[in-house]
Amino acid sequence: MTAIRLLLVDDDPLVRAGLSFMLGGAADIEIVGEAADGSEVEELVDRVHPDVVLMDIRMPSVDGLTATERLRARGDAPQIVVLTTFHADEQVLRALRAGAAGFVLKDTPPAEILDAVRRVAAGDPVLSPAVTRQLMEHAAGTATDTRRARARERIAALGDREREVAVAVGQGLANAEIATGLFMSVATVKTHVSRILAKLDLNNRVQIALLAYDAGLLEEDGEGGH
């Protein structure tokens, strides 16, 4: 089994040491580097080629949001999990919109952080339905008519089944749950997700969820059901 190559980014050396101790002991995790600021991330990524970056959101020089945007703008970007002390704030939302695959709180139990790293490395969503709802509620406070119009324009490129899958992803459901709810195979769900990502030029499922919310699809689903 190939170990997941993990890069730790946090300005607090004690936090980095704790994460390294907690995560480095797992047989399937290899800590390949540490950075104290977002300004160091791109050079480190080029040097150590991580599969996943665990990225602190608040750092003194270049913050995790900027570092995430820079990394995800590259064609060979690793997956990024944002590390934060807040459940839902504007910086976390912006990091997710920029392409971070999810976020974990700094006080999250070690086993859950490990699970998040493994899931992101495997291409699975990190956000639970409860956290997704909380994020969407926060996003409602930052939504604009222009954003909704742009989102609806992009969503219009999807077929009916792709649209249904996008709504289910927005609800925080895993592939198996989507397959059961929409009466299709897990393989078909994965195909639809891949097509949605390609058609809409998105990086991951979290961006699908945010776009579905911005377009108002989750509100329509709640009002009308299936």
UniProtKB/TrEMBL annotation:
Pfam families: GerE, Response_reg. InterPro entries: CheY-like_superfamily, NreC/VraR/RcsB-like_REC, Sig_transdc_resp-reg_C-effctor, Sig_transdc_resp-reg_receiver, Tscrpt_reg_LuxR_C, WalR-like. Residues 5-121 form the Response regulatory domain. It comes from the Bacteria. Residues 151-216 form the HTH luxR-type domain. The modification 4-aspartylphosphate is found at D56. Keywords: DNA-binding, Phosphoprotein, Transcription, Transcription regulation. This is Response regulator transcription factor. It comes from Streptomyces prunicolor. The lineage of its organism: Bacteria, Bacillati, Actinomycetota, Actinomycetes, Kitasatosporales.
